[in-house]
C-alpha cells in the first residue's frame, strides 16, 4: 500500500524488451538505499516489484497486462517517472490509501498555469467518475490529489507549485497520458450500491397473503 505522496522524480535509464513484457531500469534515488530485491515500489502509481539492484539503479519487470492498462509502455530512456516506497505501519498517512493497482489511463485535455499554480482537467472512462466526488481523493501518476470538479467523463485538480516541481505532472503536455487510481473506499461504496440494487427489487416484491381460515 502507498500514500500517493511521491518521494522522488527519477530518470528512466533503460527499456529492455523481453518475452511477455519489458524490463524497466530507473535511477536509484539516494534515499532509497534501504530498498531490496522483492520490495514493492509505486512507479507512476503502478505497484511494481524490484527484480534487480545495481549500484545506482533499480530494475522492474512489467508484463503485457500492466502495459495495456498503464502508461508504463510509453516510458523512454531519458524520461522521468514518479516513485514512492510502500507504507510502513505506524507512519503518517499524509495522502490517502493507494493500492498501486491502476484502474485506467486518463488524458490531460486542459491545463491553466498561473503564478506557479496549475489547474488541470483530465478525461477518463465514464465508469471511473462514479467513484469520484468533489473534495474527494484521486491518484494521478502516483500523485495523491484532491478532486475539484467532476463531470461524467472528466475531473479537475489544482496543483500547487511544489507538486508541479517535484513530480512529472509539471511537464505533462496536453494529450499526455496518466495512470489513474480512484479512491479505494469509493470502490467499496459503489460495489455495495450495485449489490443493493440487485437485492432490493427482490426484497420489496409483494408476497402472497394467506387468507384467514385457510
Spell out the blueprint of helices and strands.
Blueprint: E1 8-18, E2 21-27, E3 40-43, E4 46-53, E5 57-63, H1 64-69, E6 80-85, E7 104-114, E8 117-123, H2 126-129, E9 137-140, E10 143-150, E11 154-159, H3 161-166, E12 177-182, H4 184-203
Antiparallel strand pairs: 1-2, 1-6, 2-5, 3-4, 3-6, 4-5, 7-8, 7-12, 8-11, 9-10, 9-12, 10-11
Report on this model:
This protein is of the alpha+beta class and 214 residues long. It folds into two domains: 8-85, Elongation Factor Tu (Ef-tu), domain 3; 104-200, Beta Barrel (Elongation Factor Tu (Ef-tu), domain 3), CATH 2.40.30.20. It has four helices and twelve strands; from the N terminus they run βββββαβββαβββαβα. The protein has helices at residues 64-69, 126-129, 161-166, 184-203; strands spanning 8-18, 21-27, 40-43, 46-53, 57-63, 80-85, 104-114, 117-123, 137-140, 143-150, 154-159, 177-182. It has a six-stranded antiparallel beta barrel with strand order 1-2-5-4-3-6. Strands 7-8-11-10-9-12 form a six-stranded antiparallel beta barrel. The longest helix is centred in the C-terminal third of the chain and has 20 residues, at 184-203. Residues 210-214 have low confidence and may be disordered.
Amino acid at each position: 500500500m502507498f500514500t500517493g505522496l511521491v518521494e522522488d522524480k527519477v530518470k528512466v535509464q533503460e527499456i529492455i524488451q523481453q518475452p511477455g513484457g519489458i524490463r524497466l531500469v530507473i535511477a536509484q534515488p539516494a534515499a532509497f538505499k534501504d530498498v531490496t530485491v522483492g520490495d514493492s515500489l509505486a512507479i507512476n502509481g503502478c505497484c511494481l516489484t524490484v527484480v534487480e539492484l545495481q549500484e545506482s539503479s533499480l530494475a522492474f519487470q512489467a508484463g503485457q497486462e500492466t502495459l495495456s492498462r498503464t502508461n508504463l509502455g510509453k516510458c523512454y530512456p531519458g524520461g522521468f517517472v514518479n516513485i514512492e516506497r510502500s507504507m510502513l505501519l505506524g507512519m503518517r498517512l499524509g495522502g490517502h490509501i493507494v493500492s498501486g493497482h491502476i484502474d485506467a489511463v486518463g488524458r490531460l485535455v486542459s491545463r491553466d498555469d498561473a503564478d506557479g499554480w496549475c489547474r488541470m482537467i483530465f478525461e477518463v472512462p465514464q465508469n471511473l467518475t462514479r467513484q469520484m466526488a468533489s473534495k474527494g481523493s484521486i491518484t494521478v501518476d502516483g500523485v495523491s490529489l484532491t478532486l475539484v470538479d467532476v463531470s461524467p467523463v472528466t475531473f479537475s485538480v489544482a496543483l500547487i507549485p511544489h507538486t508541479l516541481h517535484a513530480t512529472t505532472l509539471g511537464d505533462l503536455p496536453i494529450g499526455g497520458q496518466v495512470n489513474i487510481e480512484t479512491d479505494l473506499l469509493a470502490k467499496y461504496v459503489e460495489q455495495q450500491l450495485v449489490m443493493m440494487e440487485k437485492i432490493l427489487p427482490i426484497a420489496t416484491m409483494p408476497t402472497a397473503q394467506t387468507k384467514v381460515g385457510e
